[in-house]
Structures are given as C-alpha cells and as structure tokens.
Amino acid sequence: MDKLIKFVKALIVVVAALILAMIVKDYYNKYKEAFNEEYAGTYTREGTEVIVNIPEGAGVKEVANILYKKGLIKYKKAFINRYQESDYSGKLKAGTYTLNTGMNTLKMIEIMCPVIDESNIVVKLVVPEGFTVDMIAARCEEEGICTKQEFLSAVNSVTKADFEYLNDIPEGAPVRYKLEGYLFPATYDIYKDTTAEQIVGMMLQAFRNYYSEDMRARAEELGLNSFEVLTRASMVEREAKIESERPIIAGVINNRLDEDMLLQVDPTALYPVTEGMYDKEVVTYDDIEVDSPYNTYKYKGLPCGPICNPGLSCINAVLEPEEHDYLYYHVEDESTGKHVFSETYEEHEDTMKPEGSDDDGDDDGDDDDSDDDYEDY
Question: What pTM, to 2 d.p., does this model score?
Fold first, then answer.
C-alpha cells in the first residue's frame, strides 16, 4: 500500500512538472511571438489614436519608455532593436506625433523620423533663456519672420482651450501677457509659410515637451503650479548668470518669502518700466518706486506673474532649490555675474564693494533704499 501511495505521489509530481513545462512553453511561445511582432511585424490593425510628445534630445531608450507608458508597445527592447537596426537609426525628431495602438513599430518609427528639407528653412529663430514676449516679438520682426504686432496678436489669441496650463493663472491676474513664461527658449526652424500663430504654437509645445510629468509632480510636492514655478524661475533667470548659483538664488527667494520680507528683485521693477525689453542698464530710485504688481520693491510676495521666459536650468533650480540661511546677495564680479551671499544684513553690508554703486543692497532684496541708483544685474 505504501508503495502505491509513493507511486501516485511521484506520478502527480511528474504530471505537475509536465503541465508546468507546457504552461511555461506556451507562455514563452506567446511572448516570443509578441516580441517578434513588435521587432519585425509589418501588420497594422485598427486601434486607438494616442498623442505622443518627444522632447528635444530624447534618445531611443527614453522614446521607448514614453511609448511603453502610453500603451503603444509592450516590449521596449523590441522597439529599441528595431529602431537601431533600421535605416531610421539616429533620425528621431522631437515633436508631437499622433500614433495608434494598432500600428506596427516600424510605422511608428517612420512617423517619428520625418524627413525635413533643410533647403526650405528660411531662418532659425533663436530664443535665448530670459527673453520676454516683447523681446521675442522684436526679434521676429528683425528677422523678417512677422511683425511685432502679428506675434503679439498670436500670443493674445491663445485661450485655455488651446493651452491647458493657462488654467494655472489666477483669475483676473494683472499680467502683461498670459503666455509670459510659457514660451520655451529654444531654436525654431521657420519656413516661408510659417505663421506667427504657428511659432507661438511651437513654443508652447516645446514647453509641454520639456515640463515633464516628474517636474509637475515635484511642483505639486512643493505646493506650486506651473504659473508659480515659472514666476519664480523667471526671477532666477534674470538674476543668475552662473548656473551653480541658480538653486542658491531660488533658495534666497524662498527664505525671504518665509520671513515675509520684500523680495526686492531689480528685474521685477525693470520689467514694467522697460515694457518687457530690459533695455535699461541702471535701476534708479524712481524705477523701484514704480507702482506695478510686478514690482517686488513695492509689494510683498511674488510678482503678479513671470517677468521673462525661463530656461530648463532655472525651472529645475526652483524645483530643487538649495536649502540655506541666506537672505541677501550682491554681484561681486560684474564680468561673470558672480554673487556674494549673506545671512544677515550686517554681513551683507560688510561684503559690499566700497567704490561700487551696489552699496544699497541691490539685487538681494536689501531693505535700505536710500541711494538714487541701483545697478541692474
């Protein structure tokens, strides 16, 4: 009887092992079939359209991850291998694409690697970090792309339905332009038939591409929306020339807000005074007295909105500010823009240049407004 029981147990183990082997084999065959379909398949079926944003500089691994998260592919490795072994390798272009869940991966690759006829490009519009809407409009006119007014009309025509981030702007905010801050600094290819509306659209799409889900999540952790992030980043952009100082200046802004101090950031006075052109070198006492909701010498808290269009580095500085006890800073080297940072006003005064025009505490939110001239940094 014992032998029979042992035999039955052994038989059960053998049968179970066979069944498991068959299941594993079936699973492997299905996996292999699906993997090969993404790696080499040419069949396209009906599916659902999916909008995909590929950021500037994205590599194939990042693109594969984007497609995976969007439910367009199951096997990242299959997509990567197909791309790298195809004639399209190295030709991925940043942009917004409409793909379909029923597409084969080669078709997706083909769409994301459009052939651009460089001979049709009229001009490459360079928008530096820190440019304002007005400065971009002026450059468009200088380059013969469109008139200033055409560009400004295109900016003002954008609605919340066109650009979802406008929902982050407080109702009734007295901003000069609702898109200030959102026109992403980059180089844009302009063709003969490119309109002002299309240029604005390209800039807004570039912001969507670069302002990633991780960045939005980090902003939410800090209790900030995109408008608040860009408002802070725009001040950092106009203040900091040296990249390593940007998180420090972002930290100073945080500290002064926490202390309920006036920010006293010079560019917030210059922005309304120069109507967004920043074509004034010296900040005067009259400038810092201008009655504008942008002017952080006049009103506590953040300016009513961004004072320029910041680049990625300054946005990241706001999202990852340096924690310290600094409340003041001033320029030490005008040629490089290097700042000296201080925790107290007394320390700040001690570090000021004795012969410079900075001994009023300019650029640091100093509380002494006694001098007539303030250097613009």
Answer: 0.70
